[in-house]
Amino acid sequence: MPANENYNQSEISQLSFDDFKHIVITDYRVGFESRQASILGRREVLTGKAKFGIFGDGKEVAQLAMAKTFRKGDWRSGYYRDQTFMFATGMCSLKEFFSQLYANPSLEKDPASAGRQMNCHFATRTIDENGDWYDLTEMMNCASDISTTGGHMPRLLGLAYASKLYRENKELAYLKNFSVNGNEVAFGTIGNASTSEGLFFEAFNAAGVLAVPMAISVWDDAYGISVPAKYQTTKEDISEILKGFQREGNTNGYEIFKVRGWDYVGLCETYEKAIAICREQHVPVLIHVTEMTQPQGHSTSGSHERYKSKERLAWEDEHDCLVQMRKWMVESAIATAEELDELENTAKKYVRNCQRDAWNDLESEIKGELTHATLLINNLALVSAQSERLLAINKTLSECFDPARRDVIAAIRKSLLATANESNEARTELLNWFNTESAKNNDRFNTKLFTDTPHSPLYVPTVAPDYNWDNDSMIDGREILNACFEANFIRDKSIVAFGEDVGAIGDVNQGFAGLQNKFGDLRIVDTGIREATIVGQGMGLAMRGLRPIAEVQYLDYLMYAMNVLSDDLASLSYRTKAGQKAPLIIRTRGHRLEGIWHSGSPLGFILNALRGIHICVPRNMTQAAGMYNTLLRGDEPALVIECLNGYRLKEKLPQNVGEFTVPLGRVEILREGNDITIVSYGSTLRIVQEAAEELKAIGINAEIIDPQTLYPFDLDHACGRSLQKTNKLLVVDEDVPGGGSAYILQHILEKQNGYFNLDSQPRTLTAKQHRPPYGSDGDYYSKPSHEDIVEMVYNMMGETYPDKYPPIY
Ligand SMILES: Cc1ncc(C[n+]2csc(CCOP(=O)(O)OP(=O)(O)O)c2C)c(N)n1
Ligand SMILES: [Mg+2]
């Protein structure tokens, strides 16, 4: 309560106690409502109204305490137990909680995920429908949850690191929507068992190194589903074993706290103290909350009576945090038992109403659609030769218990199939309605893999490289990149770059050489060897308005960041229905080196796992620079794989090296020809180009197409068009058989109808199944070589002209 001069001392203390009582009672009410939501939620799953439920019962009181310290501008990056925190901060309402449980695909009803995520996967919206940022300093912010336990820790690091940059880099003051002097704390929550994950330790260490305002709460209920702490954590105590991270004297490090999950007063004091240090001093804190319980067990998928002893269950009943809080409130004369009974009754009714409202919202919509569908099918039955079948379909539909949209749509599709050879007004009406509903359902379930707003890199205007100047000397490819990065760093102060060896030496191939000296280590900096959290660091920064380029030193190491890229970054737009964005650029290099862990080109793996991230495969550094120029002007995430063997090849510097753009999804035809279409990308293109010259000498004219980006792939269908002329298709790539090449074939043959123009079997020329051994001979026998390409094309031509191209062997 603010001090008020009009009160005398006794009035102040009286009012203070009332105020205090009011706060505690409100907290208890929020906690109790949350518990009711868990109980009702579980029941809704068990009675079949919802598919799956996981709830925050037993974790309420600590979250009430945490919520008191959470301010506008702050961020949460947590896991599925945090409903109480979400209710207490107002970031989620009870009705929204139930709407998500029922998978209501309306954004208005479930603003976190539009019914796309399981329950208790929370998010606030950070961008509007045009992709423009809200003022995040005026909101409480919750990064969209993911189900993989520990998977949110790398992004948490980035959210915290943003505060550091906003506080320390005064040049960022113009970015008013994201920070007030870096005062924002990134709150992380994680279960005790999930601290066993590598990502937890990686993020934990990195936050200590970076000294960022990251507050990690560990909700310790001594179990991870059925597995007790003795299998999870050394000494069964995470804060005990992390003691070495405690800051001492002038060292960096953490402040570590331990507090019991049912001790309301202890929790409030601990959070107040911990978060003040974190916020003011940018010191990361760990709050280990012990003695938590799980009154309803882990989730709706099983019962904890199976694996917890009677003693443990009895202990949990007694140490239930709400039971303990209630007891303390009565003992401290904060409320009487009768008052609390009444509060609980009211809360039960309120939660029940919220649940019913949420169910009715969805049910009434679907029932309306069902009624309309039934009417249209009935109308069709009146005039159709298939009336019996249609009436049977309608009967099944009307007998559906708790019908879903799929029941309605399935009935329509069956009816349309049954009457495929009929043509009448009733069928047309049904078909039209089906098309309208299909468009709505497409929007509900299949959109926003990318945020796809006017800021998308797909709409960045194409600007050609300008070579019209005196400087026509040929320079190293790495120097082209260097000039591009420098121009962009000057143009946009929100761009930062980091990674292993990126700062002091300007990356192992010197694309960033000299830039730390020019722009300082808040803009361009080294990191530890920690690919997953390099990507997470970038993701968190990008979610808070900065433009990071996170470098993964070699493509082969991308594997170490794959869970963050795939689970978190790639799915962010889809799982929030474009409510959050993270325009992160991941820079890496690959292809055509030698050795099992330095030669990789696992594009099939990457393409399949990373839908939701643009995949750029430039064949030289000018092309790469143009892609960076495009991506840094757009707002969607992208991976750029540079050619490891291209940094010292000579290229001509465009005058507009920081401005020209390479469009995403547009091919470049490198060589025109009529006999065969060869599609390849990256380093392999140089070999293909050389092979094409040898083929020309024997009368074969190959057309070579560089798609430039694999996602999106050839939006204009240029490859398919080329086949109209050549009728033959060869895809060359360095991935395993059926990897990246299968992806390319699917696009050309299926999406572009390429099969229609082929007069011989489409072929792929790929690397072998195994990884390439070290050494040039190993490379020759593992990856597509010049001779492989020449012979493959020669043989394909031989299929059509056997006399002209007889078998070589
Ligand atoms: C990466 C990953 N591995 C396994 C799982 C399956 N899983 C879901 S919750 C869970 C237990 C987590 O326990 P803990 O971290 O202690 O959190 P609690 O549920 O006890 O609050 C497991 C193994 C998962 N979701 N993600
Ligand atoms: Mg646990």
Automatic annotation (TrEMBL):
Domain named Transketolase-like pyrimidine-binding: residues: 475-649
Tell me the cofactors it needs: thiamine diphosphate
CDD domains for the chain: TPP_E1_PDC_ADC_BCADC
A Pfam family recorded for this sequence: Transket_pyr
Q: Which GO terms describe its biological process?
A: branched-chain amino acid catabolic process; response to nutrient
SUPFAM superfamilies, per this entry? Thiamin diphosphate-binding fold (THDP-binding), TK C-terminal domain-like
Q: What does this protein do?
A: E1 component of the 2-oxoglutarate dehydrogenase (OGDH) complex which catalyzes the decarboxylation of 2-oxoglutarate, the first step in the conversion of 2-oxoglutarate to succinyl-CoA and CO(2).
What is the name attached to this protein's record? 3-methyl-2-oxobutanoate dehydrogenase (2-methylpropanoyl-transferring)
